[in-house]
Every structure is written in C-alpha cells, then in structure tokens.
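To assess whether the prediction recovers the assembly geometry, we first specified each molecular entity separately, as shown.
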Amino acid sequence: MTSVYETLERPLPAVLSAMEQRGVSIERSMLSRLSGELAQRMGALESEIHELAGEPFNLGSPKQLGDILFGKMQLPGAKKTKTGAWGTAAGVLEDLAAQGHELPARILDWRQLSKLKSTYADALPTYLHKETGRVHTTYQLAATTTGRLSSTEPNLQNIPVRTEEGRKIRAAFVAPQGKKIVSADYSQIELRILAHMADIPQLAQAFEDGMDIHAMTASEMFGVPVEGMDPQTRRRAKAINFGIIYGISAFGLANQLGIGREEAGQYIKTYFERFPGIRDYMEETKEACRRDGYVTTIFGRKCHYPSIKASNPAERAFNERAAINAPIQGSAADVIRRAMIRMDGALEAAGLSARMLLQVHDELIFEVEDGEVEKTLPVITKVMAEAPMPAKALRVPLLVEAKAEASWEEAH
DNA sequence: TCGGCAAGCCAC
DNA sequence: AAACGTGGCTTGCCGA
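The predicted structure of the complete assembly is given in tokenized form:
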C-alpha cells in the first residue's frame, strides 16, 4: 500500500478553492418547513412574554428587555454591560430562570428559536447558487491569529449541533441520491496536542489506552474511581480541561461551573499538583512569548503576541491567555491542514471518487458514493491520523472517528 | 439610506 | 456578566 507520505500534496489555496467550488447540498424544503414552525412557536411565545411583562415590547431589543426586568420588575442579579445598559445575556437569564422567574425563561426560549430562524433556516437558502443548486462558502486562509481557517457567506463552521432544535438545521445538510455524507473528526485533538507539547506521560498513556480523558482527569483530581463516577464530577473535570486549554482563571472557572471562586481556585491548584508539567509548560510558554514576542506551533509556525508586555494588566493577562492557547489551537490547525493538502491525492491514488467539501476546525466533511463508503473511510482516517508525519511524530496517538450517513446531523 | 458599533449567540 | 481561547452573523440603534 502506498504510504500517505508519498501522496500528492496540493497547495492549501487550491484545496480550499476546490472545496468552495464543490459546495454542499441542503434540503430547502426542510428549512422552509422549519422556518414556519419556528415562526409559529415564536408568535405564541411573544404573546406569553408580553403577558408576563405586562406590556408589549420588541423582543429583539436587549435594552428594552433590561429596562423591564431590572428597571420595572426589579429582579435580582442585575449587572451592567460596559456601556452601562442592563445585561441580558443568556447567563443572566438562566440565573433568573433557575430562581423560578417565568419571563426570563420564556425569553431564552424565544431567543433560541429566533437565532435558528434568522441565522440559519431563513438565511441558508438565500445562498443556494442558481446554477449548481448548492451552497458555496468562502474560506479565509489568513483571518485568525492562530492559523485556523474561517468561513464566510455563509459561515458553515457554526452550524448548530448542541440542541435538538438546532440539529434540525444540520439535518438539512444532505447527500444527493446515491451518496452519503461522511464526517471525520479528530477526537480531543487539542488535549492530545497539549499532552504532547507539555510532555505529560499520564495523559499520553491515557490516550494510548483509549481512556475517557475527562473521567481520568476527575479520577486523578478527586481521588475517585472512574467506575460509577458521578456525572457532575466528570463535568467539572471536563470544564477544567477546557479551561486549561484557554488559559484558565479561578474567576472564569467559577463562572463556568457556578461555584465559588475559592472552590474553583482549589480545583486549579489540585489540577496543577497532579499535572505539574502542564503548569511548567504554561509558564515556559508565557516566558518565551515575553522574550520573543511570539509563540510557535509544533510545526514551527509563529503566532505573534507582542502586547504580552503591555503595562495594562488586563491587556497583558488577555495576551497571556491567548499565548497559552495559540500553540495548542494553532498546532491542531496545522495538523488538519496537513491532512487536507494530502486528502485529494490520497483519495485519487486509491481510485476513490469521494469529495472533501467542508472543514470545521477538527472535522472534515465529504460526499461519498454509497458503494465506496467502506473503502473510503479508512483512507480518510489514515490521512488524518498520520497528518503530523513525517515532519513530527507525536508522543500521543491521534484518534479519528468517521461515519457515513444520509445527513450531516446523522453522520456527526 | 447607509455604515458602524453594541449586544447577543452559533460553532470548535 | 465574563478575568476562558478562536471566529462570523443578525438585530437594534444611532449618527452622517
């Protein structure tokens, strides 16, 4: 079998251009039906909300809502945005809803439906191309500080997936007759890259053994067995793992988990006691950035953060967190780029007609003929898993999960 | 009428 | 809200 190292590498701009031109198929009728349902439910909610508020107002106006909740109704927990208006972001409304207040709960419902309708159900069909009948995004190659791609007009890198209603949008991304949508994604790639860069043997071993990394983290931190673990305990460890990647603070973790800042600080302390190599890595990364003005990915690409030396403490702290995150996020971006420039050549070399259509940071989406699915999946997963090589051999295996289904929602 | 900012929220 | 990183899109609002 031909090694992936010998497959043709196409320049990334050519790869992106090909993906843009291929486009993706969406089922207009599904979105239009969904839009109607959303409109109806939003209408019912609007009446209910105006009843609860005691007056009609523009539901799309955070300012009007803030005046009603905190000016008129005097609900607790009011916080101002930086311009002095009452804040009404989801976190604020969730706190109020948890205290049994009906109005903020219904507003949250309305906002979710409104977002899905305006940004996705109504907007996506307007991007259907006259001649191809498909949706063609544009990828920006140099729009991010870390080396990620971005996607515009429309952005196909933020299609909903977290809620049941949102997945109805994703379900409209379908394969044409005789084909399947294949989604292939890197499992926990940023944590694996952190384990490699910081050289943490426990984490590397856990990935080698295919363990549940969040449960393992919880077990290490709280001294409880993975078997029969309280879901809450795992959830906290998961929040910490994500926080670590983003340059955690006790304040941020406390807000994320709804716990006190002292307790959050204790979690972080315990984490660094269990994984001192992570703390060392972070300190070394910040130090290098202060010295050089940039940090580097595993493959040597630089990400510049000269303002890490700013005298303003908030600006400095912001750049420190970005500098900690950039090598992790940027290395993951490098890995998937390396896979992308080899993918078409590898598929061609294997005599397969699969077409790479979309990239969503740690995921590649393809269209594959029904009869070729079985032969295509291993080619895709191999190219992705071996993408760091031969330039780098990671201390941690990369796991790629791939699935073929009729729609993106099912395949994901 | 148009451009830009603020707030909010979708994804990884 | 955001002292948890990276983006883009929509609506409301205000001034030119």
